[in-house]
Structure formats: C-alpha cells, structure tokens
Amino acid sequence: MAKRVVIAVGGNAILQPKQDPTFEVQMTNVQKSAEQIAKIEAMDYEIVLTHGNGPQVGNILQQNELAKHTVPALPLDACNGESQGFIGYMLEQSLKNTLRQNQSSANVATLLTEVEVDRDDPAFKDPSKPIGVFYDEDEAKQLQASKGWIMKEDAGRGYRRVVPSPMPAMIHGVDSINHLLEQNIIVIAGGGGGIPVYQDEDGLLQGLEAVIDKDRTGRKLAEQVNADIFMILTDVSNVYINYGKPNQKKLEAVCVKETQKYLDDGQFAAGSMGPKIEAAIAFAKTGRTAIICSLYEADLALQGKAGTRISYT
Ligand SMILES: Nc1ncnc2c1ncn2[C@@H]1O[C@H](COP(=O)(O)OP(=O)(O)O)[C@@H](O)[C@H]1O
Ligand SMILES: NC(=O)OP(=O)(O)O
C-alpha cells in the first residue's frame, strides 16, 4: 500500500525575499518546486501538498487597501481565499505539466480549505504572523503611525506587518481529500494555513481576519488524513543547533525529547524554524515521523539520506 505524506512547502518555494513578486517570477519558482514534488510522486507516495502565503496575502491586502476608494476592500479571510486560489493554480498547473512530461498517470486537484479556529484564541489580541514585503525600521515606524499597522521585526530580515495567527483546530474537507488521494490525485489543500473560520451561535461558518501558520496547519492536516509522514520543505538542508555559529551542528535523526530540549534552550528562531519544530514535535508524538529538509533533497530525505528526521524515540 502506498504511504501517505503531507508536504508543507515554504515561502521560498514560491517567492524569495529579495525577488520581485511578479506572477512570472513566482511561476518560475513554483515550476522548480513542482519538479521536486513529482519526484516524490514517482516514489509511489500519496501526496497532500500545502503551502505558505505570507508574502502573497500581504500583497493582496495592500492592493485592496490602495484601491479601496474605487473598489471596496475585501476582508483578510477573503484575501486568504484569493491567495489559496492563485498559488494553488500555479502549483496545480506546474505539477500537471511535470507529471505529463514524466508520463505519470497521477492527476492534481486544489481544494479551497476552511480551517476552524477558536474565536477567542489569544492570538487575536497579539498579532504575530508576518505578511507582505519587508521594510526598514524607519519605514516600519511611519506605516505604524500613518496606517495603524502593527509592525514587527521578522527573524533578522527586516520589519513586516503582522496579523493575528490563531491555532488551527479542525481542517474542513478531509473526506474529500481522502477520496481524491484514493483516486491517484495529488491534493493541494490548506494553502496559506487555510481560511480561518469559526462556527457562530447558530452553527454557521463565518470568516475571521487572520493568517494561520502553514506548518501548524500542515501538522493538523497530516494527523487528520492519517499520514505516515509529515514533511516540511524549506531552504536549509537540515535543522541545526547553534545555527549560524562556527560550532553549528546539523541534526539528522532526533527523538522528540531531545528536540524539545533544544527548543526549550532557544535553539530555533521564533519566526522561522521555531514553528516548524513545534509542528514536527507535535506530529512525531503520534508515533510517526516528521522530516524537515531542503526542497531539493525531499526525495533523498524520504529515503533517509538527507534532512532532519524527528521521531518519537
Ligand atoms: N536552528 C536552525 N536550523 C536551521 N535553520 C534555522 C534555524 N533557526 C533559524 N533558521 C532559519 O529558518 C529558515 C527557514 O524558515 P522560514 O524562512 O520561515 O522558511 P519557509 O519560508 O521556507 O517556511 C532558514 O532559512 C534559516 O535561516
Ligand atoms: N501562512 C503561512 O504560514 O505563510 P508563510 O509560510 O508564507 O509565512
């Protein structure tokens, strides 16, 4: 029986911080990512693919704000939906073309995914999710004063606007995902962490203005579709301790207890590797394996030849 993997691709797979955020640039990046995902498909895995949207949803929000005097602005949950749609389109088309070239019989489907969160999640009072482009300190101060945006420093890379980022509690559409996987279809779901929603007093779904972390949603998705492996693809080959220092050491196979200790010791930056490690630990606690590795070594990592593997013991 084919093994099931949930793969979360990082922002760099779609747009790198210094790149111009044109559609063409993002499409070129996505095409390279699709070639890597197709290698995993060729290894006979059932694949659920999820992805970030921080730069894209920030840019959509800004487009809305700039045009609001002529076209009414959409709320952030609708912007999340837009970003799922256009990133899903780029991924789906690139994957279909690559699979066709590889003469694979697999197909691809993108699902718009709502994710339930707690309306009273404390994250709504403490925005922390960086979105959109980077600014220097002076620009950040000006934007904070003129537009009322909340600006925070993002992992040593500059200042960005931040929005609330509640925890994902329940992914919608898992039955559909399971059905598609059984039909040899790669499913793109939970993009941008999913569209945050809650159930109101009448049991009706309503959108919320927030951006969920895609690694957290990826982990939840992996649990809900009963995946064998949860994989986070990013722009470093491994997780390191003492990262960036002369004595940095790469982690290859680590258990939950050891990884938790490094996390508690502050080895993983809050806005970047920290959430990935938290998600990986949470998944590994279910007794299955989480992998963090480079997008370009994903196939090797699944064979145990690259990346960082986090297991319960
Ligand atoms: N301990 C660590 N080991 C490896 N990378 C780390 C560590 N701490 C921070 N990082 C940073 O995490 C980055 C990946 O996180 P992030 O930029 O959020 O990725 P993505 O956009 O791919 O989700 C790496 O480029 C690296 O600079
Ligand atoms: N939603 C989300 O986590 O996006 P990024 O990975 O691009 O920050």
UniProtKB/TrEMBL annotation:
<dbReference type="GO" id="GO:0005829">
    <property type="term" value="C:cytosol"/>
</dbReference>
<feature type="domain" description="Aspartate/glutamate/uridylate kinase">
    <location>
        <begin position="3"/>
        <end position="293"/>
    </location>
</feature>
<comment type="similarity">
    <text>Belongs to the carbamate kinase family.</text>
</comment>
<dbReference type="InterPro" id="IPR001048">
    <property type="entry name" value="Asp/Glu/Uridylate_kinase"/>
</dbReference>
<dbReference type="Pfam" id="PF00696">
    <property type="entry name" value="AA_kinase"/>
</dbReference>
<dbReference type="GO" id="GO:0019546">
    <property type="term" value="P:L-arginine deiminase pathway"/>
</dbReference>
<keyword id="KW-0418">Kinase</keyword>
<dbReference type="InterPro" id="IPR036393">
    <property type="entry name" value="AceGlu_kinase-like_sf"/>
</dbReference>
<keyword id="KW-0056">Arginine metabolism</keyword>
<protein>
    <recommendedName>
        <fullName>Carbamate kinase</fullName>
    </recommendedName>
</protein>
<dbReference type="InterPro" id="IPR003964">
    <property type="entry name" value="Carb_kinase"/>
</dbReference>
<keyword id="KW-0808">Transferase</keyword>
<dbReference type="GO" id="GO:0008804">
    <property type="term" value="F:carbamate kinase activity"/>
</dbReference>
<comment type="pathway">
    <text>Metabolic intermediate metabolism; carbamoyl phosphate degradation; CO(2) and NH(3) from carbamoyl phosphate: step 1/1.</text>
</comment>
